[in-house]
Amino acid sequence: MMDPRISIVTPSFNQARYVEECIRSVLDQDYPNAEHIIFDGGSQDGTVEVLRRYENRGVRWKSEPDKGQSDAINKGFRAATGEIIGWINSDDWYVRGAFRVVADYFRAHPEADFVYGNNFFTDPNRRVIRRVRTMPYRWEWLLHTGLLIPQPGVFVRRKVVEDCGLLDISLRCVMDYEWWLRIARKHPPHFIDRYLACFRIHPGSITGSGRLHELWRRERWEVSQKYQPCSRAMAHLQRIVASGGKLMARWWRALTGPGETSLYCVPRVVVLCGRLTPERVDVLNVLQDRHDLEAQVWTLPGTEKPQMSGPHHAVSGATKQIIAELWRERPSVVVVTDTPSGVRRAAAIYCALARAKLIDWTDPAPWAVDEFCRMLRRD
After folding, report:
1. Per CATH, which fold does 6-221 belong to?
2. Distance CA 132, CA 199 (A)
3. CB atoms within 10 A of CB 115
4. Which of 6, 78, 116, 308 places its Cα 20 to 30 Å from the Cα of 98?
5. Would you give the end-to-end CA distance of the chain in angstroms?
6. What would the pLDDT profile of 220-252 be if each residue is shown by its tens digit?
7. Where are the domains of the chain?
């Protein structure tokens, strides 16, 4: 069966520093049937030169003045030819294997039209500063609480765009939020418990700078009134009820782990690494590039900066903090390699509490990756 075409739409304006990484994250997917459409707002910082370099790799782009980010995205939606459509901004990028995960999920769940997954939040240099693990959401939680579905990890079928329309170009900050609300009323969102994309926080971004925070608050209130108009007192009551339900669901998930809410699960692996040689980085890159498992690399204080294909996360060497971080992430497998005894002890305690598998991988080697992946699945 032929893989469905995935169309990725990217708006861009003066993001020459980051746009190439975004493009490469689409081109480097282990997925043969994808297109990348970029609408640039007339950048003058070298972005156009970057785009020209990828014309012969199939990237479709156009640089011209527009009416803002939403207008550029809408142009991309109109130009998209794929059965599945995603939207990612030019300063963000996809995790390797994300397209295969999304396509497999849509194929296995024909009733799903709107899916979303987890996101990494990173600094400008790709270092993970926050891991955004979400969960299945109700429409009321999306409307009444501070909840936001992470935008780079959203994919929809083409019929959703045809049925629900394009982004509202009058909104500057919450156009994605308003679109999610509009879609979710007709097409219930499906949660994929996988990290699909990376959202970069930097001074030039709206989220990173916070310069439009007040506008964001005002637009969000106006959108909520559009979908469920009521007095501020009633809105406050509805927010309390919705927040209570969401909080109880989060507590239960924290206590029990993903459980039945993980609609698409593979082994989630955390590699605690104390030393990163070039050979070891090559092996870890291979692990992170596989779509049949989800591997994260956590480095310890003093570890040299790695050149990883995927995002990496720096953790404290303190036993209690490592246990707490592992419990929040809830991996099914913890791998320790070249780590101090305290880190190994923390990993062993977590694995005993969470009934996870602990593997001491003393000598990672490229030839051993396939055998290692088979070992992950053994009881």
Report:
1. Spore Coat Polysaccharide Biosynthesis Protein SpsA; Chain A (3.90.550)
2. 10
3. 25
4. 78
5. 32
6. 888 888 887 777 677 767 777 767 776 777 666
7. 6-221, 268-376
